[in-house]
Amino acid sequence: MHHHSESPPSTAPRNDWKTLRTLIPFLWEHKPRVIAALICLMLAKGAMVATPWFLKEIVDHLSVKDVLLTLPLAFLLGYGALRLTSTLFNELRDAIFAKVTQSSIRRVAMRVFRHLHALSLRFHLERQTGGMSRDIERGSRGISFLLNFMLFNILPTLFEIGLVVIILFINYDAWFAIITLISVASYIAFSLIVTEWRMNFRRTMNDLDSKANSRAIDSLLNYETVKYFCNEEYEANRYNSNMKKWEDAAVKNQTSLSLLNVGQGAIIAAGMTALLILASDGVTKGTMTIGDLVLINAYLFQLFMPLNFLGFVYREIKHSLADMEKMFSLLANDADVTDKPNAAALTVTNSSVRFDHVNFSYNASRPILHDVDFEIPAGKKVAVVGHSGAGKSTLSRLLFRFYEVNGGAIYIDGQDIRDVTQKSLRAAIGIVPQDTVLFNDTIHYNIAYGNPEATETQIIRAAQTAHIHDFITSLPEGYQTTVGERGLKLSGGEKQRIAIARTVLKDPKILIFDEATSALDSKSEQAILKELREVAHNRTTLVIAHRLSTIIDADQILVMEQGRIVERGSHRQLLEQGTLYSQMWTLQQQERTLE
Length: 595
Fold this sequence. Notes:
- By secondary structure, this protein is an alpha/beta fold.
- The chain has two domains: 3-332, ABC transporter transmembrane region fold (Up-down Bundle); 353-436 and 508-594, Rossmann fold (3-Layer(aba) Sandwich), CATH 3.40.50.
- It has helices at 3-6, 12-28, 31-62, 73-118, 121-126, 129-171, 174-221, 223-228, 232-285, 290-307, 310-332, 392-399, 422-428, 443-448, 456-465, 469-474, 492-506, 522-536, 571-577, 580-594, and strands at 353-363, 366-376, 381-385, 407-412, 415-416, 429-432, 510-514, 540-544, 556-561, 564-569.
- Strands 6-7-8-3-9-10 form a six-stranded mixed sheet. Strands 2-1-4-5 form a four-stranded antiparallel sheet, with helices on one face.
- Strand 1 (353-363) and strand 2 (366-376) form a beta hairpin.
- Helix 2 (12-28) crosses helix 11 (310-332), helix 3 crosses helix 6 and helix 17 (492-506) packs parallel to helix 18 (522-536).
- The longest helix has 54 residues, at 232-285.
- The protein is elongated.
- The two termini are 50 Å apart.
């Protein structure tokens, strides 16, 4: 995440080139526009460089000791026209280029967004979303900044410095050109060196800002938890200590800026003074006119005006590159799970599922599943029970191919799920998870999410199957009721039913219920179980259960213990064996009678 803060300066340019190279194809799509913008730029600069000549002619015209002072009308008008031309071409250039910048930003951001959805669950579980969205936002801002400044500040300034030095060299004493070059060069060098040194403060500021932001978002999302433990003070202090570090970095950032400005001012002053002394000397000797003095003065002013922003531009470009690098580094994260080059779509005929001697671990030190081997015949229902941490929920994540198995294989209708596209695989499987996460949108949107193409009647039918249609219509806004962020406004049972409706609408061949009722009280549990049974009728179903009462009707029950299947059979068979399952059963029966 923070790799660029530690990297030694020597590696920076290489990364920057890499970052720029990532960007170039996006620009080159609009070749004619880019070229037109550059032509406008050259024309505008040409007009800028020609302006002082008109000024010189005007001054010389007016400073002659002649009785017949005529108004140098042609030159005055020419001067005005040139200034206007320069402005016009500058604006035209911006207008032409706007499309290029904005479309590049949109397409880069799209690529990152798609890529983030393609990355594995593991990546997202380790990441803080708040900080990540900031990275994308900063990266896109960086692109726009970089393009505008590279093309409209740095290139034209270099072009203009070149033109002016050549003009001075041809028309005047070589010293004019030399002094101009020296002052401009030392100005640039000084600005870049100081800015480079200042970058550290800024980088620290950015990192701390992201951190404080993630912390704040996190603490607000967990609002209830903070309240339960009366930790408002603690959270505030934590935020404050983050912001304090940020404040220190920000102060250093500001004071070093003043230093930069003073130095820049000194260099400009020295260069200007030297040139004015030379020029005044020329005027007194009669080798130069006052107009020449005005001309040279005007040139220097024109050169230093854009350079004034140099430190700022350089810094911002470096930041933009750093921000873009951070954004592109998200692109560099490879997805753990990728489709094979010529993966076919899964063909589902009767949808049997087979786990074939599967081994799996999230990290090598902690194996989760050992040699898990079972089959769910088409249309049958298999339940997996066991204590939490026995590896039950991992089964559904593997079947969904959020992670790759480390050994063995998983087959659907005899096809290894690694050989088919993830999209077709996931389209065939519906899951009702333990805690339903709803989008902060309407109920209608949340149900329709199961199949965005569904018609109104299909959505209502799905809601009826899940027995939630009546509840929804009883709400004042019906299907247009907004679910609070993270579904806070609905009870657990209502959320579960929306999840069921969503899955019914998806109409998958294979169903997974991942402890789908463990969050509910026994009354709503009984009701929802009935709905789940209706939905599961004639579909291949994997039930991951905590309460055994919910799976009596399963065709086969697997008992898992520390990642292995230790018993299997129907409810009756397992009770007769009188081992682990029957102990769990007795225990839970006692709990129920106590209730």
